[in-house]
């Protein structure tokens, strides 16, 4: 972990030096950087959903609640405590990904407005549509896992999670 932290600090220093030297990097550089950030966030979110599913299903894929609890395994209790934490982290990452998509939509809208004044405007909506579709796909997978795990989440956490899910979907649809 220290090696990763040192490498990250070195790379951030190099990035700062490049930005200082070339204050105005090409737009394609910023767009590519944004795409990579979104892609990484989406992959991390998909991984969280798989972790939640594995935690619920158990290592054999047969059902955590039944097999491990019947065996009296300490893993069942630990897994039940870890599940809400994993779900909350996944919802937080979902909200971050949603903000990235909404930011990209705002940029696209602004570029469309500026195109009326003669600025360059790329009309291709395919990358934006792909972002929205992939985010909604992960949204439904995560929502399904939350609904399946509703018994483990408790009466007070489940309504808050469902409210956060509704906010994510409604803001995507409205914007």
TrEMBL record:
Q: Which GO terms describe its biological process?
A: signal transduction
Query: One of this protein's Pfam families, by short name?
Result: STAT_alpha
Q: Which UniProt keywords apply?
A: SH2 domain
Judging by the UniProt lineage, the source's domain of life is: Eukaryota
Among the GO molecular function terms of this UniProt record, one is: DNA-binding transcription factor activity
Keyword Lipid metabolism assigned: no
Q: What residue stretches are annotated with the STAT transcription factor all-alpha domain?
A: 80-147
What is the protein name given in its UniProt record? Answer: STAT6 protein
Task: State the organism of origin.
Answer: Anhinga rufa (African darter)
Gene that encodes the chain: Stat6_0
